[in-house]
C-alpha cells in the first residue's frame, strides 16, 4: 500500500517538462554560484574600493526589491516559457560583455555596475515567470514534491559550487568564472524553450491585466497575516546578512590576506 506522505519522485521525474525545468534551474544555480565569487572578485580588482564593492552588491539586489513585486503581476500576461528564455539569453549577453571587456582590460566600475543592474533586472522577471510555470507542468498531487525537490537540489548545488567557485577563480581566473556563468545562461534558455506546455491564453482566452493581477496579489497578502510576517522575517534576515555579503571580498583581501578560494569557502 502506497504511503501518500512519501513524495512520488518517480512519477515526478517521469514528467519531461518538469525534468527540463529542473535541469535549467540547476544549471542557473551552478552558474550563479561561480559568478557570485568571480564577479565580486572582479569588482574589487578593478576598483580597489570596499565602498564600490558594497555599492555594486546593492545594485545587484535592488531589482529584487523594487522590480520583482511588480514583475510578478506583469508576467501573468506573457508566455512564461519564452519570457524565461529571453531573460536567460539577455543575461548571457550581459555577462559575456563583462567577460570580454574584463579580458580586454576595458571594463570600468561604472560599466560593471550598469551591466550588473541589467542582469539583476532580467532575473527579477525570470524568477516569477519560473514560479508561475511550475504549476503548469505538474499535476496538483505532485506540486508540493516538485517544489521541494527543486528547492533542495538548488540549495545543494549552490552550497557545493560556492566552495568550488572560489577554487575555480583562484586556479583559472575570474574571467573563466564569468564565462562559465554566461554559458550556463545560454544552456538554461535552450532547455526552457524545449519545454512543451499549454499556457493560459494559448487558446485565445483573454489574458489578465497587469493592474488586476497586482491588485489580486495585494488583496491576497493583506488577508493572510502569516504571509506578511514571513515576508518581514525574510527582509530582516537579508538585511542582517547584507553588510557581510557586500564587504566579504574586501574583508578577505585586506584583513585576512587570502584569495578567491577563501571567499568561496566563507560563502559556504
Number of helices: 12
Strand content: under 5%
H/E element sequence: HHHHHHHHHHHH
Structural class: mainly alpha
- Span between termini: 41 Å
Shape assignment: globular
Q: In this structure, how is the largest beta sheet organized? A: none
Q: Compute the average pLDDT.
A: 78
Low-confidence stretches: none
Total number of beta strands: 0
Query: What Rg is obtained from the alpha carbons, in whole angstroms?
Result: 20 Å
Helicity range? over 70%
Structure, explained:
This protein is mostly helical. Helix content is 82%, strand content 0%. The protein contains 12 helices and no strands. The protein has helices spanning 9-13, 16-47, 50-66, 68-74, 80-104, 109-137, 140-172, 174-193, 210-222, 225-246, 248-255, 260-267. Helix 2 runs antiparallel to helix 8, helix 3 (50-66) runs parallel beside helix 6 (109-137) and helix 4 crosses helix 9 (210-222). The radius of gyration is 20 Å and the shape is globular. The N and C termini lie far apart (41 Å).
List key phrases describing it.
268 residues; mainly alpha; globular
Short description:
The chain is mostly helical and 268 residues long. It is built from twelve helices and no strands.
Write the SSE topology.
Elements: H1 9-13, H2 16-47, H3 50-66, H4 68-74, H5 80-104, H6 109-137, H7 140-172, H8 174-193, H9 210-222, H10 225-246, H11 248-255, H12 260-267
